Amino acid sequence: MAVTVETLEKLERRITLTIPADAITTEVESRLKKLSRTVKADGFRPGKVPMSVVAQRYGYSVQYEVMNDKIGEAFNTAANEARLRVAGVPRITQKDESPEGALAFDATFEVYPEVKLGELSATEVERVSAAVTEEAIDRTVEILRKQRRTFAQRPAAEGAAEGDRVTIDFEGKIDGEPFAGGKAEGFQFIIGEGQMLEQFDKAVRGMKVGESKTFPLQFPEDYHGKDVAGKEADFMVTMARIEVQHLPEVDEGFVKSLGIADGTVQSMRADVKKNLEREVKFRVLARNKAAAMEALSQAAELDIPKALVDGEVERMGQAAREDLKRRGVKDADQAPIPPDMLQLFRPQAERRVRLGLVVAELVRAQALQAKPEQLQAHIEELAQSYEKPAEVVRWYLSDRQRMAEVEAIVIENNVTEYVLGQAKVVDKAVAFDELMGG
Question: What is the pLDDT of residues 86-111, one digit of tens each?
Fold first, then answer.
């Protein structure tokens, strides 16, 4: 039987579903009869509960289930016959008038759009590159030294200096009143490492153990604590302890503590360089991928299904809820997400859906699917940063979900290479610090 598809606007369609009433009645009776074999009721043995009791208790829910199933089957059959690619879940409404002996429903839904891939030859895409410098290796070695530093108490006559770990008691007030988070005892931080606001950091320099000081502090307008952002507070600080840090010498013992067997500085620097180059490669790839994807998305023409955007907004909201839960926010997984917050996700959701549709079309049109050898190569590259690469490779290969994630990355890489091969590429060398800071 031919299916009539009504076009409402752009991607929205509507079809009418007709379901024989006797088919619903028969299925409801069948399910209730099956249910009666196991249902329990006071005064009756299992399997002996009268159908009238079973129908009274479960008739409504079974009727609801059957209706949903029958409507779903009818919709899937109609959509397949009409060769429709349905985007999202259809909205079902019962019609006021139905044919005799049947129930009629309108199914309103969206279909996937036609994606017109744009011409990329005139599109300009910036492709960055970066090199690992000796200065970058030096800074990384310093970080490794700081990770293994020790602290010893500074002589009482000396004041706190850059790099010292200090233990302080402090209390802050705004307009003479204490504020949340403005008081602590036995609080530790290292001077000069950006752990505290610059004014606070400077105020404790030169202080000696047992000394107290009062000073004003202006909170920045963009301070994370909204209650104090932009306000001036008066702080009183008492120095309880000062410890000077000692960095390990870059010698054989230090090098071996990093897991480098021969203990030579040369081997250590080569290993640091190798790790930095791997990180640089991934960051360069990520940045170039983002530029290529943006160019591809902007060059394409398509309508975006609202249903897919709504679904993506819901997923982003759920991810935000899970993040709050991980941070220890009470009942974060139960409280509804405010509509205003969900609306903030919508622009990003629209970009994600648009890009996903465009990428899928390009992959289909240009056969950019991931090849087995590409998957294997990517996994082996990921595994090289671990102590036992072979075990990591087996770990990936043994799980379909992990392999699906790898496949998605490889496909994105294929798309990036294709776009950069077609577009007008502008090469740009960026400094190591800029790349890592981004």
Answer: 999 999 999 888 888 899 999 999 99
